[in-house]
Predict the structure.
Amino acid sequence: MKPISLSQGSGGRQSQRLVSAILEATGETPDFPLEDCAFLEKGLAMTIDGYTVSPLSFPGGHIGKLAVCGTLNDLACRGARPLFLALGVIAEEGFDEDELLGYLGDAAGICRQIGVRIVTGDTKVVPKGQLDRLVLTTAGIGKSSLPKTLGIQSIRAGDSLLLTGPIGLHGATIAALRYGLESEGLASDCAPLWETIEGILDFDGLRAIRDCTRGGLATVLCEWAESSGLGMEIEEAAVCVPAPVASVCDLLGFDPFHLACEGCMLIAVSPEETEPVLDRLRQSKYGEFASRIGIVTEKHPRWVTLNTRFGGSRILDMPVGEILPRIC
Amino acid sequence: MCLAVPHVLVEITGPCTAIGRAGTIEVEIRTDLLEGARPGDRVLVHAGFAIEKLQPEEATEIEALWEEIRALSGTRQNG
Amino acid sequence: MGERTRERVLAAAAALERLADRPLKFMEVCGTHTVSVYRSGLRSLFPEGLSLVSGPGCPVCVTAQEEIDSLIRLSAMEKVIVATYGDMLRVPGSSTSLAEARSSGASVRIVLSAAEALALAMDTPNRIVVFAGVGFETTAPATAAVVLQAARQNVENFLVLNLHKTVPAVLETLASDPELALDGFLLPGHVSTILGLSPYLPIPEKYNLACVVAGFEPDQIMAGITLLALQKRSGVFSVQCAYREAVRPTGNPHARELLETVFEESDSNWRGLGLLPRSGLRFRSAYSAFDARIRLGISDVPAREPAGCRCGDVLAGRISPFGCPLFARACSPETPVGPCMVSSEGSCSAAYRYGRGEPS
């Protein structure tokens, strides 16, 4: 008996271990490095994600919005236009039907907005106590018409690293609710990012895009560094941490680089096309605050370094396990 | 050893409780460890308890320390 | 603000470059200093001659293995809910951690304050809430305050597993360690908020060591280290306070009074340092009804620290995390062997997360 711990579901390295163990058990050998969606053939892309969140509804979104945005963004980040979605609902006995329909109605609205059809689904109800209210699973299919593949293997030394928005908003929102803090002006950044991404897909110098979800910006950077064998060098001062996020981090002892975002992406782009891509992003719906936060370097392979606001430098690592509030 | 965050007392809500504000957050804190907490006080909060009233530091005293350090370093700030 | 801090940090770095013309070895006692030093990247600015070693200032790290085991045993007892600061959750005991115990069904709640633990007890009268009272003089007065409240309100299902420790005595142990050969202490800011400066006075007097109380911003830490280097250079040692905003010379007497109402000084078992005289707190008999050890009949069972783990030497500043053969090999934050790797302010964890690959 080896109980699976919460830490293994929190992003970061312990989650990676569980994923590796599952891959081994299934005998599948997927293409490495692991990305958020897989390409099948002729540009067809597929992904799946399960969603649980407590509380189910929060400023800036709810589980339904999260479930469609997350899956659609996983397709979009690899340059695949999201087309079809499958939706699985598992509800706990006694859960309010109207609440469920409200979440799903909003979710469908987001799909319509970007031309995605929900084409199949499944519903299950489990006895009370066997599930925390509601779990949604969404699988998405998309199609890329790009001549190349966006992803970690395209990243080169010298590339610029762009961030499309402020960090930590989703994670801080959920943490604040969970620990009973009210932070003024704090709301999840949960958003469908396809239109923002579509606007920059014509740039040849575009290398890779990843939305900074579970585990935050630090996790994406570390995964890119470890999978590409290159170093990432980040300027702390260029990364925007909104005041409400900073307040939550101060009180709970969190690192904003570890907090989930649901509407913010890291983008690697060639140095030549950095400025035009930034210009385009800044005109887009969710890219108003896009900025260049660092570069890809050969200097320290597989490591992410952060040049701090105080003139020093340090290693940036993934969070380990569940992010816990601390007093020390 | 001990994370502590400055809060401003917004409202005294009981003999040992107050609402404190830190950045954008307002939160209930305990004031048992202080004597005579008043709205407007800046306090240092550790693990939900105010542990001290912060006193405004003498800006000139701090600046004098930094001038001494700059003198040692051979760097001088202009202005 | 950020620009001013940066200018100050760099000025202090340049000053230290000059002051460290001979080797200087200081200890930052407080784990929050440890983390702040790493997170702000200050180590990359230190001159070669300056070494800053981490001390026993992480309350989670210095909690003895036996004490962690007792806490985990309590969490497995029927009707018991363990309420704890998040810091304690992943600390490995002899065979498991609270986090693992929780995965296997134990009732463990994370609280942000001792007051929350008491509120939990009042909300769940059919359960026994055991609060893991960990921390130094900064944290212990809050535990005392809720014990007093529980006594006033006759809350009988609120107990404390008292793991509190106190700082001054252990500093003398370290100051007199010839192997350590320190030049001075960067003293903990928030412990001093409660204690004031007088408990530290014997250190410069008896041991000729520099002492500076510092705040936690990068420029405050750099100022503190520079003042330590200046004391060393002048050969005149004293307890200086560079954190006057939060530390009065007399500390917070009211908080100490509450602390001393509920607890009294006792010897205490520190990880790696063993039993140290006058370095802990125990319940006064008038409040023993709140002592989880007495009420639930728990006593610490001698435990062996994990093989090869050198947390004790790290805590005593005898080796740096990098000097432990398990560091970043068998021991990492995902598979911690000792508590210094698990607590976010543990020096091994800080070194692992922020310090590997440093130019030093």
Observations:
- The mean pLDDT of chain A is 94.
- Chain A has eight helices and 15 strands.
- Residues 97-113 of chain A form the longest helix (17 residues).
- The radius of gyration of chain A is 19 Å.
